[in-house]
Every structure is written in structure tokens, then in C-alpha cells.
Amino acid sequence: MVLKSHLHKCLIPYGELLTAVDRTIDRIRLRYSVHIACRKGCACGCRNLTIFPVEALSLIRALQDLPAGAAARIRKRAAESRVWDCPLHEDRACSLYPFRPLICRTHGFPLQTIYNQRLSIGYCRHNFKNVPSVPADAVVDLDQINGALRAINASAVNEVASVLQLPERLSIAEAALLAVCG
Fold first, then answer.
1. Against a cut of 0.85, is the pTM above it?
2. H-assigned helices in 53-125
3. Are strands 50-51 and 93-94 parallel, antiparallel or unpaired?
4. How many of the other CB atoms lie within 10 Å of CB of 154?
5. Strand, helix or coil for residue 117
6. Residue partners of 155: CB distance under 8 A and separation at least 6
7. Residues 6+ apart with CB under 8 A from 3
8. What pLDDT, in 10s, does the model give residues 20-35?
9. How far apart are CA 108 and CA 127, in angstroms?
10. How far is residue 36's CA from residue 97's CA, in Å, rounded to a whole number?
11. Which residue, among 85, 61, 84, 81, has the nearest Cα to 71 in the 3D structure?
């Protein structure tokens, strides 16, 4: 029960960040829907990516709330997972969609970051086809999101440190296989 109270407390700021990111992505999707190919059934970004511990804790919590059979199927896929196979991907959709990590929420959308000391904007090749440039209001500042995520993650790791030790990063499959009781 101790871990459950720690989980609840540390996941509140993470949930708030997810809500803010979802609002931004929804705004872009609504405004530029004719240029966005990302939708249910598209698995271009569904990979066994690495995530922060706070994201793993969110997935663990979601798995605990699933019916036993559904959680077992995810864990079975996680145990068999390779780098390119996301264990959450089932029937052409994410089986934990409301709880998917930030990298999954933003994948495919125009993301701005500083790379090799230069401003870089990357997005899925299926999005914003046949446009000379991506509109500025369709670009998400990934460095800003990751800065907030790193701060929230540090706080969450500190919150659960007395009852659970987590690595700096772990794959989605590793998160799904973590056995967390209480």
C-alpha cells in the first residue's frame, strides 16, 4: 500500500504534463487535420522505445488496473519484444493509449529541438506532405517538454526511492515486465 500512495502522489504532475501536451497536439491535429496522417491504425511510431521512470510508473499503474488477461497479453508481448516491437501495440492500436508515454504522444508531429547546436524540426514523412514549410504554430518545442519531463521524473524517482529503485531509462517492454506490488 505504501508504493500505491507514492505512485499516486508522484503521478499527479506527470498527468498534468500529459494533459498540457495532449491539448497542444489536439490543437495541431484539429487545425491541420488535412496534413496529419497520424491516426488509429498507423503504427509508424510504435516501437519499444526507452522512457523515463515516471513514464514506466504510469504504465505500471495502468497495467495494475487492467483485467488480468489483458495485462498478461501485454506482459507476454513484452517478454518476447524486440527493439522494433512495442508490447503495447495490439490490434493496430495502443492497448494503453490513455497512458502512453510522451514520446508516443508527440511522435510524428513537428518537433523542434536543438541538435548539434542548431535548431532542428523533425516530423513523420507522412505528415505535412506537399507544403513548402510547416507552419510555426504546428511546431512543438520538444526541449521544453523534455525539460518539464526531466524535472517531474527527478521528483517521482525521489518520491519512490525508499520503496523502488529504477534505472535512468528503461524500455516500454522493461516497464511492462516490472513486478510492482502494493
1. yes
2. 53-65, 68-80, 102-106
3. unpaired
4. 13
5. coil
6. 10, 13
7. 160, 163, 164, 180, 181, 182
8. 999 999 999 999 999 9
9. 7
10. 18
11. 61
